Amino acid sequence: MGVEGKPGPNGAPIPTFAAQHYTAADIASLWQLSEDTVRRLFENEPDVLVIGNQKPRYGRRRYWTLRIPEFVVERVYRRLSRR
Questions:
Q1: Of the four, 34, 56, 60, 74, which is 20 to 30 A from 82 by CA?
Q2: 5 CB-near residues (< 8 Å, 6+ apart)
Q3: How many other CB atoms are found less than 10 A from the CB of residue 24?
Q4: Cα gap 33→25, rounded to integer Å
Q5: How far, in Å, CA of 57 to CA of 61, rounded?
């Protein structure tokens, strides 16, 4: 179980599972990007929860859902804004 270094209201680190999580649609709306672009940005990021079948049988589309912790959104935003 990972622990994020960001302190919570009582000063203790917030566990990863308790952090605010966003969907690709949430971030796409905030950043004015397509959901597909957001999925590509976050699908291989550490600490992102990927739910579903990423490697389906031949001839089937892959179906998966991302849940992206707030600290990962901040990390990616900082990385992108430095370019």
A1: 34
A2: 13
A3: 22
A4: 9
A5: 8
Question: In which region does residue 62 sit, left (phi positive, over 0), alpha (psi from -120 to 50) or beta (all else)?
Answer: beta
CA separation for the pair 44, 29 (Å, rounded): 20
Residue that is written with structure tokens 């589309």 in the block: 61
Helix, strand, or coil (residue 12): coil
Residues 9-32 have pLDDT tens digits of 666 677 777 789 999 999 999 999
Read off the pLDDT of residues 60-82 as tens digits, 9 standing for 90 and up: 666 778 999 999 999 999 999 98
The pLDDT value recorded for residue 34 is 96
How would you classify residue 46: left for phi > 0, otherwise alpha for psi between -120 and 50, otherwise beta? beta
Rg from Cα positions in the chain? 14
